[in-house]
Specification:
The protein is α/β, with parallel strands linked by helices. It is built from 12 helices and 18 strands. It is about 30% helix and about 25% strand. It is globular and about 60 Å long. The structure holds zinc ion (2 copies). One zinc ion binds next to helix 2.
Length: about 350
Amino acid sequence: MKALRWHGVKDLRLENIEEPKALKGKVKIKVEWCGICGSDLHEYTAGPIFIPEGAPHPITGEKAPIVMGHEFSGQVVEVGEGVTKVQAGDRVVVEPIYACGECEACRQGKYNLCSTMGFLGLAGGGGGFSEYVAAEEYMVHKIPDNVSYEQGALVEPSAVALHAVRQSKLKVGDRAAVFGTGPIGLLVIEALKASGAAEIYAVELSEQRRKKAEELGAIGLDPSQVDVVKELHERTNGGVDVAYEVTGVPPVLTNAIHSTCLGGEVMIVSIFEREAPIMPNDIVMKERTMKGIIGYRDVFPAVISLMEKGYFPADKLVTKRIKLDEVVTEGFDTLLSEKNQVKILVKAE
Ligand SMILES: [Zn+2]
Ligand SMILES: [Zn+2]
């Protein structure tokens, strides 16, 4: 079968590899759609980050070259011995987290914080940029008939956004600000809508991305035109209840802190490439809190239910659909050069 494998920085190859088998405990899936993620882009331009190179991943036992793609949907074609959760013909999405099941985080049920956590599609186990994947039974979630395969490919990134909002102190009727409206920031806006936020501000430099946020119902603010902190305090009469930092840019974190109200909260949803200096008194003097989240846990069923109600809409968030043959030129390279792209989906054929 055809599969896109990471061999090195700027070296992704579409190759012919052996089809995976439905071994014991595994679910063989014919992939329908797979989204290109920001972390896939990072692996392409500056990897390896999550991809094991040299030493194999402790859980999968695999190392580069690795099949990529972790945001996918598909149909079950075969199940291995002992599998009871799904059967051939079921429409599914994959929650691509490998966890050891034994470390402190795993014992606490926080499998996304597992000390040897790995992603299917980055750490081994096949990936969605191929025709078939054999995933572990526990990773598979059924999707209902009114959630399309395209929509299903958005469950994984939407789970990050929903986890971020669920872990925050946001309450129905609260006001929130999202700093950075790339794909995850836009999905955070959707999660906030679903959570009953009364006002959602979207702080974004790129006009195209800001427009997209407004299309989803947020109030766009252009930090090159207005003093965002002042503006947010004026509009909300004292600051937003929760600010979500989704840029990974140090000065933006400072703005996010300053934009919150007394006792407000900053949620860090991004990965930072360098240190971000902050003034602790900004937290102390207003009794604010700051918290981080990584990935998600236990939220796939909730995301799927919200999608049945129309949240995280693929028709607004998917900006391009391509085929596996075009994944590098029309997918990865396009995402690097065109800021108006949100999610590019790849059809596995
Ligand atoms: Zn991802
Ligand atoms: Zn663990």
